[in-house]
Amino acid sequence: MTASIISGKKVSDEIRGSISDEVKELVSKNVVPGLAVVLVGEDAASQVYVRNKEKACHDLGFYSEVHRLPAETSEQQLLALVDTLNQQDTIDGILVQLPLPSHINEKSVINAISVHKDVDGFHPVNVGNLVIGDDSLLPCTPAGVIELIKRAGVELSGKHAVVIGRSNIVGKPVSLLLQRENATVTMCHSRTSNMAELARQADVLVVAIGRANFIDSSYVKPGAVVIDVGMNRLENGKLAGDVDFESVKEVSGPITPVPGGVGPMTITMLMKNTLTAAKRNHGLV
Ligand SMILES: Nc1nc2c(c(=O)[nH]1)N[C@@H](CN(C=O)c1ccc(C(=O)N[C@@H](CCC(=O)O)C(=O)O)cc1)CN2
Ligand SMILES: [Mg+2]
After folding, report:
1. 97 lines ligand 1 (CB under 6 A)
2. Is 55 assigned a catalytic role?
């Protein structure tokens, strides 16, 4: 029997509806949440994502600034812009689209963003608070993964979750958030020798490895929930996840598609973080 599809688009629209209502209330108090997005260079995928973020801001009534800088922008020039945005009262959230050109140190840029405006949740202070369980702005994709699992009605407490991939922006934080939901978490990575065996033990399998269609049905326990964080552009221009959707959906439980799964949730969680930052910046929480 084919698995049920977890629609990130549907969940995203539901959450954006409530964000839009909250923004209207804030605007009535003369508070307009402001997001600044900085894009350096001409990476095609990044341009799509930044356009999606800008559109979401406009759709939800946020103030939005997009700074598109040439690829040859120096690290110092970028840091100067971040410093200006840190001090700009109309801006509650700042993000610098990754990846950056190789001559720019991503860590230096992330560290330069004010912790309170770090709506990506990448700043070491926000990451540290995530690790110790204190309040923090959560990284958008991991937060979106957890929201999708919860809204699919999946109970995580006591379940075995297997995360494949250990990146700083997805694998590591999503493992921590799964632990916060009392799941038992196994993290697999490029040096894991028995990945398929471990993956088949998962009640919930989260895949974020950046390899198109890598995970087939041999990695999936029948009925397991499968969350595909992959975002791979194929030579034919189509988008593919890390999961071989057509084969896996025949054995899995609820599964996210690509596109239309985790991706839209990343943007929505960014809007949610910006709203939170605006409320905090204006002393409303
Ligand atoms: N500063 C950041 N950089 C990057 C992040 C991030 O969270 N912060 N994450 C990824 C890219 N990403 C957000 O920027 C992102 C990826 C995909 C989507 C999305 O909506 N995908 C759609 C398909 C879009 C398309 O047609 O290509 C989907 O999956 O349905 C949104 C955001 C790396 N960089
Ligand atoms: Mg404001």
Report:
1. yes
2. no
Q: Which residue has the tokens 């109970």?
A: 155
- Report yes or no on 15 lying in a domain: no
Query: Residue 3's beta-bridge partner residues?
Result: none
The answer to whether 24 and 54 are in contact (CB under 8 A) is no
Active-site position among 92, 117, 118, 120: 120
**Among all chains, which residue has been given the structure tokens 């330069």?**
112
pLDDT tens-digit profile of 37-75? 999 999 999 999 999 999 999 999 999 999 999 999 999
Q: Are 30 and 284 contacting, i.e. CB atoms less than 8 angstroms apart?
A: no
Q: What is the CATH number of the domain that holds 166?
A: 3.40.50.720
* pLDDT tens by residue, 179-200: 999 999 999 999 999 999 999 9
How many angstroms from the chain centroid is the CA of residue 66? 19
**What is the maximal distance between C-alpha atoms in the chain?**
57
Question: Alpha-carbon torsion 240, 243, 244, 246, what sign?
Answer: negative
